[in-house]
Design a protein that fits this description.
Blueprint: E1 3-9, H1 13-22, E2 31-38, E3 41-48, H2 51-59, H3 62-65, E4 70-76, E5 91-92, E6 98-103, H4 109-118, H5 129-143, H6 146-153, E7 161-167, E8 174-179, E9 184-187, E10 191-195, E11 207-210, E12 215-219, E13 224-228, E14 233-234, E15 239-240, H7 256-262, H8 264-272, H9 292-296, E16 301-305, H10 307-324, E17 328-332, H11 333-336, E18 348-353, H12 359-370, E19 374-379, E20 392-395, H13 408-427, H14 433-454, H15 457-466, E21 471-476, H16 481-495, E22 498-503, E23 521-525, H17 532-543, E24 549-553, H18 560-563, E25 566-569, H19 579-596
Parallel strand pairs: 16-17, 16-18, 18-19, 19-20, 21-22, 21-23, 23-24, 24-25
Antiparallel strand pairs: 1-4, 1-10, 2-3, 2-4, 5-6, 6-7, 7-8, 8-12, 9-10, 9-11, 11-15, 12-13, 13-14
Bound molecules: 2-deoxy-2-amino glucitol-6-phosphate.
2-deoxy-2-amino glucitol-6-phosphate binds at residues 306-309, 353-355, 358, 361, 404-406, 493, 607, 610-611.
């Protein structure tokens, strides 16, 4: 995933572009570049690595660039070609007339490239984007204006794109277009800005237009005009957004990840607000638009997602099967899309995606939609692509998550799955005292989360001590097996330490061979569930192989002190609701180890916030 931005107006263009890219850093961060329309020509500046490198480069030429009329910028997460200056955007056509930044993937770029080479165009980079620049340049020869050149080029592109395009002969505008990749236009007063996402826009204006697929917009200083690919004019639909400028600030925390971990109690509180007013009344989930008789008669649910969202889905399986007694299949979207799955017109598919832009999940949802399935989307971005294919959108409303490692969006997804499972159970006529107790306990979760967060110094000191280990094994059972998987993923992502997760009972079937004093075992231990004693037995087996034992537990059992080397206490909680709490120490543990090791916590190597390639 990459981030793009374009600005035209009287303010300092390069400053605004760099600030916009700064707020899109979570979308990619292996190289960056901007193109400025300055002195009647287009000047391009690029740097490899962090955006800071480009900022440093630009800071040395402030006086040369301060009068630029407009510009476009890009922050890259490499897909085609390594991260170097040649492959960094913006890309210029070989005729030197067209400059493009692009987010997305052009699937037929090789054919197009061969064609263009035959026509005499040349290529410097390995990217698919340079093909767009040359293609538009070729169309420009006939159209003689940028808008029509872009319009004529678009039908030739297969795949996904959001593009900003400048032309050296047109000094008053740039042109943007999109298909299956996000692009938002911010409409200001005598200035306009476009970007992949709102954080790059909110400092300029709160009036925005969400560009639709296959629409083209001509952006001038004092006007925005939108047309469809077939040339018909589209009325501007401006919406006011309420996002605060500090939605993307660290609010005094050292890293976004720590800030976002600490936001979890309030996110859960807000999600519960208005949905459970009386524990004996049915839960409110008005967003579900699927007819009740269809829901009542469902014989199966499929959940598709990737990464952390997949782990939330695995918790969802336990919840739905336990509370509503309907079988649930959970599958990585990347597997679901390449097999003959059983989705049909009677299926309910729940797709979970924080960003709503993950390519595998998007393809899965499109496929399920084509088969006529009902689609419920759980997302943090109700404005994202995935919601186009849904019948019902459950917005987890966690606020922008900047840190690449998902934390607050995970617990918000979990909360939504608890609400859905209860709602579904109630639709199926299963409301009883147990469900009332679960609702009551859900209301206590935000305070219990605050209790864990109020003193993370214990976890911080444990993290310091354990940061020397090179391998960890996380174990869990039942509803906390996904917690173990999520804990291991977090540690891998932000500290680059190998961590694998297993069902605790599987340890003895192979992984136990790995154990010695150098491989700590990290477990979740919640009293009250039938496997509590079994997990203790699994840990004892590990102890006998000299493994260090760390547990996250709500147990008050004094005997645990003799067995475990480190005990991280969480407040008393039922097993079913425990994933909402037990994951927090794991998030903090991964955060502190990463911070202690001096890793790039918010932007770990090789990762992007949302993976827009399959
Ligand atoms: C989480 O920490 C990861 N960054 C990653 O696994 C992520 O959850 C996955 O790529 C799915 O993203 P999505 O929820 O935006 O679809």
């Amino acid at each position: 995933m990459c981030g793009i931005v374009g600005y035209i107006g009287d303010n300092n263009v390069s400053e605004i572009l760099l600030k916009g890219l700064d707020n899109l850093k979570y979308r990619g961060y292996d190289s960056a570049g901007i193109a400025l329309f300055n002195n009647n020509q287009i000047e391009i500046y690029k740097s490899v690595g962090k955006l800071e490198n480009l900022k440093n480069k630009m800071s040395k030429i402030v006086s040369e660039t301060k009068d630029s009329l407009f510009g476009i910028g890009h922050i890259r997460w490499a897909t085609h070609g390594v991260a170097n200056e040649v492959n960094a955007h913006p890309h210029i056509s070989s005729n030197k007339d067209i400059v493009v930044v692009h987010n997305g993937i052009i699937e037929n770029y090789k054919e197009l490239k061969e064609n263009l080479i035959e026509k005499g165009y040349s290529f410097a980079s390995q990217t698919d984007t340079e093909v767009i620049a040359n293609l538009i340049s070729d169309e420009y020869k006939y159209a003689l204006n940028l808008k029509d050149a872009v319009r004529n080029a678009l039908p030739k592109l297969k795949g996904a794109y959001a593009i900003c395009v400048m032309c050296k002969n047109e000094s008053d505008k740039f042109v943007v277009a999109r298909k299956h990749a996000p692009l938002i236009i911010g409409v200001g007063n005598n200035e306009n800005i476009v970007a992949s996402d709102l954080p790059a826009i909110i400092a300029i204006t709160s009036d925005v237009i969400y560009l639709n697929d296959e629409e083209i917009a001509v952006i001038k200083k004092d006007s925005v005009e939108i047309e469809s690919v077939d040339g018909s004019l589209i009325p501007l639909k401006i919406v006011k957004i309420s996002m605060e400028v500090d939605a993307v600030s660290k609010m005094g925390y050292k890293h976004y990840m720590l800030k976002e971990i600490n936001e979890q109690p309030n996110i859960v509180r807000n999600l519960l607000n208005g949905r459970i007013s009386d524990v004996n009344a049915k839960i409110k989930l008005d967003e579900i638009k699927i007819p009740l008789d269809i829901l009542r008669n469902l014989s199966k649910i499929q959940i598709i997602a990737c990464g952390t969202s997949l782990h939330a889905g695995l918790v969802g399986k336990y919840l739905i099967e336990d509370l509503a007694s309907v079988p649930v299949e959970v599958e990585p979207a990347s597997e679901y899309i390449y097999r003959n799955n059983t989705t049909d017109a009677n299926s309910l598919v729940i797709a979970i995606s924080q960003s709503g832009e993950t390519a595998d999940t998007l393809t899965a949802v499109r496929q399920a939609r084509e088969k006529g399935a009902y689609i419920v989307v759980i997302t943090n971005r109700p404005d994202s692509n995935i919601t186009r294919y849904s019948d019902s959108i459950l917005n987890v409303n966690a606020g922008i998550e900047v840190s690449v490692a998902a934390t607050k969006s995970y617990t918000a997804q979990l909360l939504m799955l608890y609400l859905f499972a209860i709602y579904f159970a109630e639709v199926k006529g299963k409301s009883d005292d147990r469900i009332s107790l679960i609702k009551e306990e859900l209301l206590s979760i935000p305070t219990k989360m605050e209790e864990i967060l109020s003193d993370d110094s214990n976890i911080e000191s444990v993290a310091d001590k354990l940061s020397k280990f090179k391998n960890f094994i996380y174990i869990g059972r039942g509803v906390n097996l996904p917690t173990a998987m999520e804990g291991a993923l977090k540690l891998k992502e932000v500290s680059y330490i190998n961590a694998n997760a297993y069902p605790a009972g599987e340890l003895k079937h192979g992984p136990i061979a790995l154990l010695d004093e150098d491989v700590p075992i990290v477990s979740v231990l919640i009293p009250g569930y039938i496997t509590y004693d079994k997990i203790i037995a699994n840990c004892e087996e590990a102890k006998a192989r000299n493994a260090k034992l760390i547990t996250v537990t709500s147990s008050e059992d004094e005997k645990l002190k003799n067995l475990f080397d480190v005990i991280v206490k969480i407040p008393s909680v039922s097993d079913l609701l425990s994933p909402l709490l037990s994951v927090i120490p794991f998030q903090l543990f991964a955060y502190h180890i990463s911070n202690f090791l001096g890793k790039d916590v918010d932007q770990p190597r090789n990762l992007a916030k949302s993976v827009t390639v399959e």
